[in-house]
Amino acid sequence: MNTFNKIIKLIKTSKKTIVLTGAGISTESGLPDFRSKDGFWTKNKPIQFQDYLDNEEQQRLSWSRNIELHEILKKIRPNIGHTFVEKIVNLNNKENFLITQNIDGLHQRSGVSEDKIIEIHGNAIDARCLNCGETADILDFHAAIKANNPLPKCINCNGIVKVATISFGQPMNESDMLKASKISSECELMIVMGSSLSVMPAGQIPNLAIKSGAKLVILNREETIYDAMADIVINDELEIICGELIKLI
């Protein structure tokens, strides 16, 4: 049995599989890794969360960058890696889930429902009040920036609204992290795709699966710190790997 067939067998026999995805799955759609040489944070100095709270100019800069990101997202589409993840998560009679480090919404666009995804770094698609948690229409903020108008406030409490990503210095969403930890500790199989596992707290998640006795599969272009502990590792482009796996699932 070759490696691809072994992976498919693990997926089909596992009652609860968790897929953990990182930036590498979206780079093949044409979205640069945010931390790469051509990435967003290389070209743009990150805005610290406290600076966002204290300074309206930083808020406006953040929303301007979100407009720029949305223009990029309009031009890209989910790729075969996203399609493969969707097929795993939506397998019948399974308790499979997706944990993603990505903020681009491509997994939802590929057909994974919101109740099957934990976005541990948030997303760039939604907006939320930092005071009461009320959601807001992100396009209202885009319009305010383009027209050079004051930024809207929360319609519920008049608080500051921010795009729903986790910024530098911003606390992680506690409920998302608790759920991610819980399902990772309960899974029978974890598949890591397109992540170096070097960014915390995502880098700690596979350890929870290993400690619970789960099998670990790593599909990533480069080596990770977990390769020696994994049951199966394939270091190659995800387009190539998933092109083979999707024929078998």
What attributes characterize this protein structure?
249 residues; Rossmann fold; elongated; SIR2/SIRT2 'Small Domain'
CATH superfamily of the largest domain: TPP-binding domain
Integer-rounded radius of gyration: 19 Å
Q: What letter string, H or E per element, gives the SSE order?
A: HEHHHHHEHEEEHEHEHEEH
CATH architecture of the largest domain: 3-Layer(aba) Sandwich
The averaged pLDDT comes out at 94
Tell me roughly what share of residues is in helical segments. Answer: 25-40%
Which term fits the overall shape?
elongated
* Tally of alpha and pi helices: 11
Strand content: 15-25%
The largest sheet is: 6 strands, parallel
CATH fold assignment of the largest domain: Rossmann fold
Low-confidence stretches: none
Total number of distinct structural domains:
2
Distance from N terminus to C terminus (CA atoms, Å) equals 15 Å
Q: Looking across the biggest beta sheet, what order are the strands in?
A: 3-2-1-7-8-9
**Mind telling me the CATH class of the largest domain?**
Alpha Beta
